[in-house]
UniProtKB/TrEMBL annotation:
Organism, as annotated: Diabrotica balteata (Banded cucumber beetle)
Region span, Disordered: 1-25
Keyword Cell membrane (UniProt): no
SUPFAM superfamilies reported in the protein's UniProt record: Glutathione synthetase ATP-binding domain-like
Transmembrane intervals: 34-57
The name this protein goes by in its record: Tubulin polyglutamylase TTLL6
């Protein structure tokens, strides 16, 4: 090997030594073991996560596959049916709308219905079907309600707040005597259909005419922007014997005569008769800003206007409540006489509208009470909200629009009933019920309300009264009459009422003592 070859070998060996890294010194045994364990843990954790994801995905796939294969089932709904002439003609549209929103389905009368909504009086043609109703079925009229809503019967009843009226020809002599006593009085001639209403003097009337009556005309009405108007108050009777009456307190219906009252002309009916084409509140200048710009309702707009004149509108509403209460109490016995022909008194309720006139001294006069008041907004679309709110509140009050889901109004289980109303809710007069008197017998009114004495029927209608209290929303109880806690504690005279109404009034009095919201 030449010297040059030797030099080349030495250079290659030198390069090889440079290219090979030197081996690090060996790690301690414990450190090596920990590193290997960490790597193994990470690997095993990853495998576990992937396994869970795979299992979950498979289960979800199975769920979706199962759901895809399910057959749709028909939802069971509460049912109502409607009775009257041309019920699908549109005048009940707001009724249908609210019932659908409350989960009801429109059915025929052969179905297992929960509610009958009758626009016409149903107890003549449907008597056989309504004679033996199931406990949960509701009907929106009371048998015998005509004792209030019949215009002749109401006008000639002689009750407070109703202008004197005389039925022809039977009251002919009384009419002549009254006209001689008050020679300047004018009369409005009416019939039960409220048609051909017109002011007349006594000598212009055929006093032997059948089917009509004369009523004293109120000639100095309260005017707003020069227009005569009436006030409609929606009223609900939820029970008779005992009697419970509410009004819808959220709003009143104001209707104005199309033409200004002065200069007065008895031949121009548009000056003093509120007809179908009345002037709505949103076109009355004195109420326009309150109603259209500030967003107040009809009632509150009228209140604000009267206050701006220095008048107290509460005078009107107190009289109205008393007038409604007076009429219904006076007619309750006649309604009960008709109702006794039916198996149960607890299936029926009534929504009416009482119409009032106010004179220039804020004295009110009851003009009529309307069964099946108009609830159609077809003629005046802005009234839709009013009608829907009335219906929603009334149906909630009577238990048709309840908040607990059920496929029928049929009786709940005891557990469900107790959840809403239990014996604790009904309990009143704790000290009286613990007295020797009530422990010994059940003779006194207060003792009859104790758990140890209360009858099944009394308990049943008090349970319903509690439900109404819980669900009354914008409805206000006017009978039993409102009271203060002080009045309730001092005792209230109930002797003028029937035994059933006395007992119920005493119960409300006891609830008021315990809780002011019941007063």
């Amino acid at each position: 090997m030449t010297d040059s070859d030797m030099n080349l070998v030495e250079e290659e060996n030198k390069d090889e030594k440079i290219a090979k890294p030197s081996r690090p010194p060996p790690k301690p045994l414990i450190e090596t073991a920990i590193g290997q364990y960490t790597i193994l843990s990470v690997v095993l954790g990853g495998v576990a996560v992937l396994t869970v994801i795979a299992i979950t995905a498979d289960e979800c796939r199975k769920c979706f596959d199962k759901a895809a294969n399910l057959q749709p089932t028909e939802k069971i709904q509460k049912a109502f049916w409607a009775y009257g002439k041309d019920v699908d003609g549109g005048h009940l549209q707001e009724v249908f709308t609210i019932l659908h929103r409350l989960g009801y389905k429109k059915e025929d009368n052969y179905s297992e219905w929960d509610l009958l909504w009758a626009h016409d009086y149903p107890f003549t043609e449907l008597r056989s079907q309504l004679d033996n109703l199931k406990p949960h079925q509701k009907v929106n009229h009371l048998p015998g309600i005509g004792h209030i809503t019949n215009k002749v019967t109401l006008a000639t009843s002689g009750l407070n707040y109703i202008p004197p009226a005389f039925k022809l020809p039977v009251d002919k002599d009384k009419l002549l005597e009254y006209s001689q006593k008050f020679p300047n009085v004018s009369f409005v001639q009416k019939n039960n259909d409220h048609r051909e209403v017109k002011i007349k003097k006594i000598f212009d009337v055929n006093l032997d005419q059948e089917g009509t009556f004369l009523q004293e005309y109120i000639d100095k009405p309260l005017l707003v922007s020069g227009h005569r108007f009436d006030i409609g108050i929606y009223t609900i009777i939820t029970s008779v014997e005992p009697l419970r009456v509410y009004i819808y307190n959220g709003e009143g219906l104001l209707r104005f005569c199309p033409e200004k009252y002065y200069p007065f002309d008895p031949e121009n009916l548009d000056k003093y008769v509120v007809g179908d084409d009345y002037l709505p509140v949103w076109k009355i200048p004195a109420l326009d800003y309150y109603y259209n710009e500030l967003g107040f309702g009809m009632r509150d707009s009228l209140n604000a206007y009267l206050k701006s004149l220095g008048k107290d509108p509460s005078t009107i509403w107190k009289q109205i409540e008393d007038a409604i209460r007076t009429v219904v109490i006076a007619k309750e016995a006649a309604i009960v006489d008709v109702l006794q022909r039916y198996t149960s008194k607890r299936n029926f309720f009534e929504l009416m509208r009482f119409d009032f006139l106010v004179d220039e001294n804020l004295k009110i006069y009851l003009l009529e009470a309307n069964m099946s008041p108009n609830l159609s907004s077809a003629h005046f679309p802005p009234n839709r909200l009013l009608y829907q709110q009335v219906l929603y509140n009334v149906l909630g009050l009577v238990g048709v629009g309840e908040s607990i889901y059920r496929s029928s109004l049929a009786v709940r289980s005891k557990s469900e009933e107790d959840m809403v109303v239990s014996d604790k809710t009904l309990a009143v007069y704790p000290n009286v019920c613990n007295s020797h008197t009530c422990r010994s017998n059940c003779m006194s009114l207060e003792c009859q309300l104790c758990k140890t004495c209360i009858t099944t029927e009394t308990r049943q209608y008090l349970v319903t009264a509690v439900k109404e209290h819980l669900h009354k929303a914008d409805c206000k109880r006017i009978f039993p009459p409102p009271m203060s806690q002080e009045e309730a504690a001092n005792g209230i005279d109930v002797d003028q009422y029937s035994p059933e109404n006395q007992l119920q009034y005493k119960w409300f009095q006891g609830k008021c003592i315990l809780d002011a919201s019941w007063c």
